[in-house]
Amino acid sequence: MAALVWITAASSVAAHEVLPTIGDMEAVDGRLTFSLEGNFESLVAGIDLDGLEDTENAPQAETYDALRAQDPAAFEAAFRSYWPTMAEDITVLVNGEEAPLTLDAVMVPEVGDVEVVRQSTVRFSAPLPEDAATMQIEWPAEYGVLVLRQMGVEGGWDGYLSGGGLTEEVLLGGGNEMTGWEAFFRFIPVGVEHIVPLGLDHILFVLGLFFLAARIRPLLWQVTAFTAAHTVTLALATLGIVNIPDEYMWIVESIIAASIVYIAVENIFTDGLNPWRPAIIFGFGLLHGLGFASVLTAYGLPDGAVIPALLGFNIGVELGQLLCIAVAFIIVVSAIRLSEDGKVNRGAAWAYMAIAIVAVPVAMIPISAMGPDAVEAYLPLLFMVAALSGLCSASCAVERFDTYRHMVAMPASIAIALVGAYWVVERVFL
Questions:
Q1: Neighbouring C-beta atoms of residue 342, cutoff 10 Å
Q2: What CA–CA distance (Å, rounded) separates 367 from 386?
Q3: What is the pTM for the complete model shown?
């Protein structure tokens, strides 16, 4: 129940989601210009976005909400007042020397749905000496993720800054384009991160596949169908062949939540792979692929290495899914084996209980050292591990056949169905 509460609470991220800042950089008429599109209310409010998923969890959430409700003129004035701080936080080096930054324009959209992130555009520039050859930009970690691309040259540079830091030297004349291999390896961790720890809905869907029957053959059929489907729509959406407008993405997200409910409920009423289940999973996988694509598009793809970046991201997603299945299998393997012969194993029961009440809290120590944002991201997953270990402990302590299904798989599926149902209601009505 604790895991259920935490997972449900984490579902509110969509309403106050932290998105990367997307920008273009170009040398024009002796100046190096930057045009950034992002959620600048969070910066003005003083929110530390490093690793943050939901602005509602920030201490400055009330100030942030008030800024989002301001009309364009009022927020533009607030941002211009904040600009000296931002100009001091950002460092632009030209030929290794720091260049002064000038704010050129602030464009703020009209107030719409205050529960949806407002993306404003900020333009600033730095002077370029006649012999300017290279540039670097240092982006502070508290400003979140920056995706920046070089425009107006052949082989423009594409940068991705997560956790702050200074970029490598970028040639202003071009020729910095990311190679296919660089794009491939750079986007693998992006795909993994979208599943673990950020993709709770996808994690629950994959676990729903696992809890039907923790055996290789039915799991292989289901995962293959799901992987094939989301690979197709991820590629089509990323390449622009299929396009879902942002205002309709809530429909996709709602159906993804409904797919979690369907898979989990079917687990409760059947203990084997029905002939139609892989086909249904394939259909749901098509929608999950659109969800993956929306994230990948937000991060931006290097123009000259779209396919390698897409492949790297997809492999990262698969690695994240396999990691979830592997962890679940390692946890429940003893419970499955003991369920097959109907014997009690008090040693295994105590071991599972130790995982739930000792190992999980101990795991929180290094995660806590990473900061409150890491705690927020990983805490629901740790509660899932603790809850699953508790169910396995009970399964090992009871002498009867098929205890794994009745005391582990079915309760876990019920919990997954309840979370999915909450997400359906939240995404449709809240």
A1: 12
A2: 16
A3: 0.70
Cα 290 from Cα 295, distance rounded (Å): 9
**Side chain identity at 48, as an amino acid letter?**
D
Q: DSSP label at 167?
A: P
Question: Do 45 and 64 form a contact (C-beta atoms < 8 A)?
Answer: yes
- Sheet with 120-127, edge to edge strand ranges: 102-107, 120-127, 31-38, 21-28, 146-150, 158-161
DSSP string, 19-83: --EEEEEEEETTEEEEEEEE-HHHHHTT---TT--BGGGSTTHHHHHHHHTS-HHHHHHHHHHHH
How far apart are alpha carbons 118 and 114 in whole angstroms? Answer: 8
Strands 97-98 and 91-94: antiparallel
Residue 273 gets the label, from left (phi > 0), alpha (psi -120 to 50) or beta, of: beta
d(CA 395, CA 99): 65
Each residue's pLDDT tens digit, 294-342: 777 666 677 677 888 889 988 998 999 999 999 999 888 888 887 777 6
Question: Under a CB-based contact definition with an 8 Å cutoff, are residues 367 and 401 in contact?
Answer: no
Q: Are 229 and 286 in contact (CB under 8 A)?
A: yes
